[in-house]
Amino acid sequence: MFEQLTERIQRTLKYIKGEGKITEKNIAEALKMLRLAFLEADVNYRVVKEFEARVKARALNQEVLLSLTPAQHFIKIVRDELTEILGQEARPLNFKSQPPSIFMLVGLQGSGKTTTAGKLARYVRTLGRNPLLVSFDLKRLAAQDQLRIIARSLELPFYEMTVEKMKDPAGVLKELLTYTRNRGYDPLIVDTAGRLHVDEELMEELKLVREILQPDEVIYVGDAMTGQDAVRSARVFEEKIGLTSIILTKLDGDARGGAALSIVYVTGKPVKFIGVGEKFDRLEVFHPERMASRILGMGDILSLIEKAEKEADLKEAEELARKIKKHQFTLEDFRKQLQQLKKMGSLSGLLDFLPKMGPFKKIGQLEVDDKKLLHYEAIINSMTPQERENPRIINGSRRARIARGSGRPVQEVNQLLKQFFEMEKMLKKSDFQKLLKNI
Questions:
Q1: Quick count: other Cβ atoms within 10 Å of Cβ 271?
Q2: How many Cβ atoms sit within 10 Å of the Cβ of residue 263?
Q3: Bridge-based pairing state of the strands 271-275 and 283-285
């Protein structure tokens, strides 16, 4: 996420740190570097212009110029202004005090709108809600097939729109409202029609849905990988339909990040969630201040901790700490940790939360192969319980058998065992043991 932008910003911050003091000349140079970084990341030029003006005004303040640590002041200013552009603070969903709440998803075809409807339904269910999914598209009745499959896979209720019902769109929407209220569903999540581009027919259909359902949220779902196209279409949806918030999808891809930095400014609406993967649990609450830190290469340790707390088994964690203290860490324990990591997402995604500076710099910049972790798990699965408990008994013939059983080369089995023994040594070191005493 934002790799290219982060790398260029890091160069700017390194440059300003190398200056003994802040002057108009080096501020101008730093701002030029930032401007190019943002424009190449496909950030809207109006956003770049305003950001540059605000940073310059604050950076040339007398308090900053006379500071003993002017570079740190400059970095803080850049972070604050990025946070301002991204929306200042996380915004919760608008739930009605008297249910049902109604969330209407809009956007162009291919933005991930239908998948996002499923992700959003799964998310609100974790909040103790009872969501109902429905697809409303007057032109493509088959559009609801995908959402029906998603609802079934998530074991969520789905409202079926028949051809006969759709002949009276206003009537079927009123019937939908009655159905939702009578059965106690909350919220009602409506996946609406999508087109390859904005047209009047689509807008009229969406206006009808909005007028009858009176949704509490009209959420624009935008593909971050389309850059300024997502920004432009969001602006049209805001002008024609009226939006309350935004969900950006595909931020786990090689997007340059311009949409995330521009869309709040252009529409005036907050980003509430970001999609960071295909799986239905890959929907994250959007925290502007944390995202600003990640863009600057400062990482997002708080979100990483929250993710770990959400997915980790605390009893297993306590048992693992006890075993490490007693020097009893085994390959079976290592396998359990690999399984915990898989629940939290890709390892490369987790490293994205770490700072690209300071003591985490080398770790945060690692390039990792998530397939290797799956291969390691397969190798451990091919071992006997005795071998997992005491890997030192694994001789040449055992290694060959394990390699055949896991479908991996013997060289990879050797590599796993070597890394495990090195990890075992590290866990036995006195400094690490001192750290564990405080847990």
A1: 27
A2: 30
A3: antiparallel
pLDDT value of position 253: 57
DSSP 392: G
Angle at 180 between CA 176 and CA 182, to 5 degrees: 115
Counting as low any pLDDT under 50, the low residues of the chain are: 300-301, 305, 357-367, 431-439
- Residue 130 has a pLDDT of 96
Global model pTM greater than 0.70? no
pLDDT of residue 306: 54
* Those residues with Cβ within 8 angstroms of residue 217's Cβ, 6 or more apart along the chain or in another chain: 93, 94, 101, 102, 103, 104, 244, 245
* Residue pLDDT, tens place only, 78-120: 888 888 888 877 788 999 988 899 999 999 888 889 999 999 9
Secondary structure class of 393 (helix, strand, coil): helix
Q: Tokens 């140079």 sit at which residue?
A: 29
Three-state SS annotation for 190-237 = EEECCCCCCCHHHHHHHHHHHHHHCCCEEEEEEEHHHCHHHHHHHHHH
C-alpha 389/C-alpha 317 separation (Å) is 18
Q: What is the pLDDT of residue 198?
A: 74
SS3 102: strand
The DSSP line for 420-439 is: HHHHHHHHHSHHHHHHHHT-
**pLDDT over 90, % of the chain:** 28
CB-based contacts of 368, cutoff 8 Å, min separation 6: 347, 348, 351
7 alpha carbon, distance to own chain's centre: 19
The two three-digit tokens of residue 336, written as one number: 């359990």
Mode of pairing for the β-strands spanning 217-223 and 271-275: unpaired
Q: From the CB of residue 103, how many other CB atoms can be counted at a distance below 10 Å?
A: 26
CA dihedral 370→375→376→382, nearest 10 degrees, is: 160
CA-closest candidate to residue 197, choices 109, 112, 116: 109
Domains in the chain (CATH in brackets) are 3-86 (1.20.120.140), 102-297 (3.40.50.300), 304-437 (1.10.260.30)
Secondary structure of 269-295 in the HEC alphabet? Answer: CCEEEEECCCCCCCEEECCHHHHHHHH
Beta bridge partners of 222: 248
347: number of Cβ within 10 Å: 17
Cβ-contact 300, 294 below 8 angstroms? yes
